[in-house]
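Figure 2 data, in text form.
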Amino acid sequence: MNIEIKYNSPLQYLDYDVSRYIYETFFPSKITKEYKNLVNDQFKYFKNKYLKIYKLKDIYFPNTLFSPSRHIYKRLTFNLFLVINRKVPFKNKKRRRNNIISYRRAILYKREANMLRIGLI
């Protein structure tokens, strides 16, 4: 089967291997592949550690409980386990109140609305 290129087609001027260009441009580099393998290895390590510590069959078991103190029990899912054991800490920013006057006014409006609802005003 012989396909003929039309006379006004831009394909007739193509002199570069498109498949090679796509491979070089859009496929991951060697470093990216190494980082992906590193992330996969870390995931496997923490998964095995989680299963070994809490003696579970799989990571999808939703009712894992542990006791940080004697009276408080907390659910420990695999996602929370990953966050607790992370290597790179992330910043926990507190929310700033940029306009303190409007914040106080909102509290006063809320109190007034509650008084109206109760019927004291």
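Caption note: The radius of gyration is 30 Å.
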